[in-house]
Amino acid sequence: MRFKDEIRLLLPELRAYAFSICERRDDAEDLVQDAVARALTAGQPPEILEQLRPWMFRIIRNLHYDELRKMRVRREYLAREKRLYDEYPGTPDRSGDILVRLAFEGLPPDTREVLFLIDIMGLKYKEAALVMNVPQGTVMSRISRARRALLERIEGKTDEKAKVSHLK
């Protein structure tokens, strides 16, 4: 039996396991899809169904706990930021920083890369071109498009807030 066929046979069990450890059905479905994708790209997956079943369950479990850790870190970060703001009311409003960070995280990876290298790390265009293995002119056009995309995301979120507050 082919590897893909074996995974297809395991799908009901994988879904049942994911449903048992997730709070939301959508999260469980996403978890199964991510696990199958990871399994299909694995270098040497188990060849026997009896070994494949626990291996797939372990992938689902690890992906689930990785996501839980990410959510915990985000909650702790936001709680710390709020606590700092509450403790020191004279500190500048960090909501703009958070808005920029969320907008940045929502950009595609290649767009984030050029922004990170140029605007965050402070590399020169020539240095970024070497890192990215592209011509310097390409870096210049990518950073221009990336900055524009970031600004549009920020302004779009700000405009949505303005519309919501206007309706109140």
What is the count of β-strands?
0
Shape: flat
Percent of residues in β-strands = under 5%
Number of domains: 2
Structural class: mainly alpha
Helix content: over 70%
Poorly predicted runs of 5 or more residues: 157-168
Specify the CATH class of the largest domain.
Answer: Mainly Alpha
Report the CATH architecture of the largest domain.
Orthogonal Bundle
Largest sheet: none
Order of helices and strands: HHHHHHH
Number of helices: 7
- What is the fold-level CATH name, i.e. the topology of the largest domain? Rna Polymerase Sigma Factor, Chain: A
* Span between termini: 61 Å
Average pLDDT confidence is 83
Radius of gyration: 22 Å
Protein name: RNA polymerase sigma factor
Family: Belongs to the sigma-70 factor family. ECF subfamily.
GO molecular function, one term: sigma factor activity
Domain RNA polymerase sigma factor 70 region 4 type: 100-150
What descriptive keywords fit this protein?
168 residues; mainly alpha; Rna Polymerase Sigma Factor, Chain: A; Arc Repressor Mutant, subunit A; 7 helices; flat; disordered C terminus; transcription; RNA_pol_sigma-70_dom; transcription regulation; DNA binding; sigma factor activity
Report on the architecture of this protein:
This is RNA polymerase sigma factor. One of its GO terms (biological process) is DNA-templated transcription initiation. GO terms for molecular function: DNA binding; sigma factor activity. The chain is an all-alpha fold. The chain has two domains: 3-87, Rna Polymerase Sigma Factor, Chain: A (Orthogonal Bundle); 95-167, Winged helix-like DNA-binding domain superfamily/Winged helix DNA-binding domain (Arc Repressor Mutant, subunit A), CATH 1.10.10.10. 82% of the residues lie in helices and 0% in strands. The chain is built from seven helices and no strands. The protein has helices at residues 3-21, 25-40, 49-87, 95-105, 109-120, 125-132, 136-167. Mean pLDDT is 83; it is low at 157-168.
